[in-house]
Task: structure prediction
Amino acid sequence: MTSLPALLRAASRARAKAYAPYSGFQVGAAVLAGGRVFAAGNVENSAYPLSVCAERNAVAMAVAAGHRRIDAVAVVAGEDQPAAPCGGCRQVLAEFCAPRTPVIYAASGGRSVTTDVGALLPDAFGPDALRRAASAGPRTTADGHRGAARVRLTARGRRSP
Ligand SMILES: [Zn+2]
Result:
């Protein structure tokens, strides 16, 4: 079992290869999946919104290698203050991690925070929500019309009490 400090070292090495010429904010992430470590840095783009976080790049590497479950996550960013994963990455981690999956994020100066995926994204939307919706059965067109009519009535009701 790879330790969290070992995972942090992998994240730190990946951070050195991050491509962050626009923000200058290099991030490295490493995930443990199937007993292997997958590490990546953030990759920015001159079309800014196309930039991808280190965490998501590391998750994509693990998934591309055939893994669907991540057992631990480490992130290295910032000089003094550790930078936590962004909201988008928390959602992506929740897709492949159990709520109790450990996450450690650290500044290059050594300070770190150890938490878990459930604490970073409580009550996460996930695959179970879609499965529950699917098992409720398909909606018919008539259901959709009735639902839309209810919404219109409610809206009208609020406008003229
Ligand atoms: Zn992110």
